[in-house]
UniProtKB/TrEMBL annotation, chain A:
Pfam families: Fer2, Fer2_2. It comes from the Bacteria. The keyword Cytoplasm does not apply. PROSITE patterns: 2FE2S_FER_1, 2FE2S_FER_2. It comes from Desulfofustis glycolicus DSM 9705. One of its GO terms (molecular function) is metal ion binding. This is Carbon-monoxide dehydrogenase small subunit. Keywords: 2Fe-2S, Iron, Iron-sulfur, Metal-binding, Oxidoreductase. Residues 4-80 form the 2Fe-2S ferredoxin-type domain.
From TrEMBL, chain B:
Residues 1-171 form the FAD-binding PCMH-type domain. InterPro entries: CO_DH_flav_C, CO_DH_flav_C_dom_sf, Diverse_Substr_Oxidored, FAD-bd_PCMH, FAD-bd_PCMH-like_sf, FAD-bd_PCMH_sub2, Mopterin_DH_FAD-bd. Gene3D superfamilies: 3.30.465.10, CO dehydrogenase flavoprotein, C-terminal domain. The lineage of its organism: Bacteria, Pseudomonadati, Thermodesulfobacteriota, Desulfobulbia, Desulfobulbales. It comes from Desulfofustis glycolicus DSM 9705. This is Xanthine dehydrogenase FAD-binding subunit.
C-alpha cells in the first residue's frame, strides 16, 4: 500500500505520520512515537494489553489500522498518566497488590479508567464484566478487582 | 492506478467503486486486521478503503414499522440503542469483549459470513433484509440469500453492505443463548435465536435459527410450521419431541471448538429449554 499522511490527536496534541494506512496503530504508537507503555500481548484482540482510548472508548490498538483514526483522538497510558484519575488508580493498584509482572497493567488501568468514568460506583460483577477482555496470567484477577473497587472509593471528583 | 483510489470515500458509490477496483473494505477492522497480519509482512496485499465517512452506512433510523441499521453500527452502539430489537441486542452483547464491541460492526459480522457469527442467528430469526450499495445499483436481499457459504456472500465485486432492515412490530418474545467455553472472547459452539409472537396463550408464529451447526445459519421451517397456532400448554408438552426434531435438522461438524455429537445434543437441549421458557406463564 502507498504511504499517506495520517493526522490525529495523540494525548491531546495534534500529530501527523506518513505511513501505509494499513499499519497497525500499536506499531505506530510504539515504533514511530516511542510510546511503549501500550503493550502487545496476543496481537489478535484477545488479551487487552494494547488497549487505548479512541474517541474516549476503550479500543484494541492491535486491531486498528492507522488509516481508520485519521481525524480522531487517541489517549495512551502515557496520556492518562497526566490525569488525577491515573494517580488514584496507580495508588490503588499498588495498595491492592494488583501488579505482578505488570504486562497487562496498562490495559487494566485503561479499562478501569473508562469504567469509573462511566459508572460512579461499579459493583464487583460490573467490574468483572468490564475487564472480561483483559487477560492477566499472574494475579488471578482478585487483586485487580479489589484495586478498582478501592479506586472507586477514593476517586472523589477526580474524573 | 491503485494510488488513485480514495482512502476515505464519503459516498457509498465512491466506496463501491474503490472495492470494484480492488481495495478491501475496512469497517471495524477486528477480523480483517487479524487475517491481514501475515500478508502485511509480504507487502503484497491489496490496499484498504476506509468506510467510516460514508454517512449512508451509519446510524440507526426508524422507518415505518422497521428499523434501518447502518452497516457501520458497532456492536456496542446496537447493545445500548433503545430501538434495537431485544433479540439482536442480546446476540450482539455476546460478541468478543467490551473493547472489541466498541470497534466491531454489524456489517462486518455479516460480511465475514462465519458460521459462528454471533449476530447472524438473531438476524435470521428476525427475517432481516440487507440493503446493498453498488456503483450504479442498489438492491435488497433477505439475509439468508446474502450469506451463501462459510466466508462467502452474494455481494458482487462492486457491492457493499449499506444497511440491515429489521421489522419492529412482529415478535414480542425472544430467546437467545450462545454456548461457548467462556463468556468473553470465545466463538460459539452452538447458538440459538428464537423470535415468537404469542397472543392469548396461543403461539401465532415462531422463527427458529441455529448458529455454528451448519455451513450457514439454519432456520427450522418444519418445526416452526408445527408450532404455529398451538396453545403454549400444548407446546410445552411437545418440547422434547420438537427438540429431537431440531437435532435432526441441523448439520453440525467436528472441529477444533467442539464435536458434532456435542453440538447435536446441546442444540436439542437449547430448543427444549427455549420452548419451556417461552411457554412459561408471564406476569
Amino acid at each position: 500500500m502507498n504511504s499517506h499522511l495520517i493526522s490525529f490527536q495523540l494525548n491531546t496534541m495534534p500529530v501527523s505520520v506518513e505511513t501505509t494506512p494499513d499499519a497497525r496503530l500499536i506499531d505506530v504508537l510504539r515504533e514511530h512515537f516511542r510510546l511503549t507503555g501500550t503493550k502487545e500481548g496476543c496481537g489478535e484482540g484477545e488479551c487487552g494489553a494494547c488497549m487505548i482510548l479512541l474517541d474516549d472508548r476503550p479500543t484494541l490498538s492491535c486491531l486498528v489500522a492507522i488509516g481508520a483514526i485519521d481525524g480522531k483522538r487517541v489517549i495512551t497510558i502515557e496520556g492518562l498518566r497526566e490525569t488525577p484519575g491515573f494517580a488514584i488508580l496507580a495508588q490503588a493498584f499498588n495498595d491492592a497488590g494488583a501488579v505482578q509482572c505488570g504486562y497487562c497493567t496498562p490495559g487494566m488501568i485503561m479499562i478501569a479508567y473508562a469504567l469509573l468514568r462511566d459508572q460512579r460506583d461499579p459493583d464487583e460483577s460490573s467490574i468483572r464484566r468490564a475487564m472480561a477482555g483483559n487477560l492477566c496470567r499472574c494475579t488471578g484477577y482478585a487483586m485487580i478487582v479489589e484495586a478498582i473497587r478501592l479506586a472507586a472509593t477514593r476517586r472523589g471528583q477526580s474524573w | 492506478m491503485v494510488s488513485q483510489l480514495p482512502l476515505h470515500p464519503c459516498t457509498g458509490r465512491e466506496a463501491a467503486a474503490a472495492k470494484a477496483a480492488g481495495a478491501v473494505p475496512y469497517a471495524g477492522g477486528t477480523d480483517l486486521m487479524v487475517r491481514r497480519a501475515a500478508a502485511r509482512r509480504t507487502g503484497q496485499e491489496p490496499p484498504l478503503v476506509f468506510l467510516d465517512r460514508v454517512a449512508t452506512f451509519r446510524g440507526i433510523t426508524a422507518l415505518d414499522g422497521a428499523l434501518r441499521i447502518g452497516s457501520l453500527t458497532t456492536m456496542a452502539e446496537l447493545c445500548s440503542h433503545p430501538a434495537t430489537p431485544g433479540l439482536l441486542g442480546a446476540a450482539c452483547a455476546t460478541v468478543g469483549s467490551p473493547a472489541l464491541r466498541n470497534a466491531a460492526t454489524i456489517g462486518g459480522n455479516i460480511c465475514t459470513a462465519s458460521p459462528a457469527g454471533d449476530s447472524l442467528p438473531a438476524l435470521y430469526a428476525l427475517d432481516a433484509e440487507v440493503e446493498l450499495c453498488g456503483v450504479d445499483t442498489n438492491r435488497r436481499l433477505p439475509i439468508d440469500r446474502l450469506i451463501i457459504a462459510p466466508g462467502q456472500t452474494a455481494l458482487k465485486p462492486d457491492e457493499l453492505l449499506a444497511a440491515i432492515i429489521v421489522s419492529t412490530d412482529t415478535a414480542d418474545r425472544f430467546y437467545y443463548r450462545k454456548v461457548s467455553p467462556r463468556l468473553a472472547n470465545a466463538l460459539a459452539k452452538v447458538s440459538l435465536a428464537v423470535a415468537a409472537t404469542v397472543h392469548d396463550q396461543v403461539l401465532l408464529e415462531m422463527r427458529i435459527a441455529f448458529g455454528a451447526v451448519g455451513p450457514t445459519v439454519i432456520r427450522c421451517s418444519e418445526i416452526e410450521r408445527q408450532c404455529r397456532n398451538r396453545s403454549l400448554a400444548d407446546l410445552a408438552q411437545s418440547a422434547r419431541r420438537l427438540a429431537d426434531l431440531a437435532a435432526e435438522t441441523i448439520r453440525p461438524i467436528d472441529d477444533l471448538r467442539s464435536s458434532a455429537a456435542y453440538r447435536r445434543t446441546v442444540a436439542g437441549n437449547l430448543l427444549e429449554t427455549c420452548l419451556h421458557s417461552l411457554c412459561a406463564p408471564t406476569t
